[in-house]
Amino acid sequence: MLDVDSLRERLKTRIVGKSSIVYYDEVTSTNDVAIDLCKRVGAEEGKLFITDYQTTGRGRYGRTWVAPLGKCILATVVFRHRLKQEQVHLPNLIGALSIAQGIHAITGLSAKIKHPNDVRIEKLKVAGVLTEIEYDLHRQPFFVLGFGVNVNISKDELPAELQNTATSLRIATSDKDNNEICRLSVLQAILEKLEEHYLTLKSGNIPLIEDSVRLWEEE
């Protein structure tokens, strides 16, 4: 189980995860519970939802996201910035960028963005982002940025149909060190990068985001 108290103490952020962190042992999906709460009672910007297991995790186009219990990072952050029509694609990109940079910072692995919302290591998917835009009980727009990262899944825990297309941080580092990777450290690194890029989005400096993404995109 992720140590939420340690995460709260370690996070060097002003928005993401600072107002509230909600942890679930098991949930349908973190995006689902975040959207439901915002619609019913509202939720402050930066509220973070984390779980160790999703029963109906999903990606783009309703694709299933498979995540064994306690082996992945499964999280959603609530954001309140009102996106312009030409900006609706950017949350997925800043999410993927933050994941790639967070992975590299903790593991040294060369993670790359596959447009618009996947992160891959050596062409194998290790993480994905799902952004959903909704309206709260006051009819104010918000969006939730959900992401999943395969951290400590072993090769034999990957479903057979995914073994040629997916990987995990543990698999990708197996030649160097077969120990489990600290999910808390990876999550912290991702969230701190996510806040950095979200604040850039709010400032309107879109070219800076696009330039940063290009540096991390697959060739």
Report on this structure.
The protein is α+β, with helices and mostly antiparallel strands and 219 residues long. It has 6 helices and 7 strands; from the N terminus they run H-E-H-E-E-H-E-E-E-E-H-H-H. It has helices at 4-10, 30-40, 90-107, 169-172, 183-203, 206-216, and strands at residues 21-24, 48-51, 72-79, 111-114, 118-121, 124-135, 141-150. Strand 1, helix 2 (30-40) and strand 2 form a beta-alpha-beta unit. The longest helix has 21 residues, at 183-203. The radius of gyration is 16 Å and the shape is globular.
Topology summary:
Elements: H1 4-10, E1 21-24, H2 30-40, E2 48-51, E3 72-79, H3 90-107, E4 111-114, E5 118-121, E6 124-135, E7 141-150, H4 169-172, H5 183-203, H6 206-216
Parallel strand pairs: 1-2
Antiparallel strand pairs: 2-3, 3-7, 4-5, 5-6, 6-7
Helix pairs in contact: 3-5, 3-6
Short description:
The protein has 219 residues and is an alpha+beta fold. The chain is 33% helix and 21% strand. Helix 3 runs antiparallel to helix 5 and helix 3 crosses helix 6 (206-216).
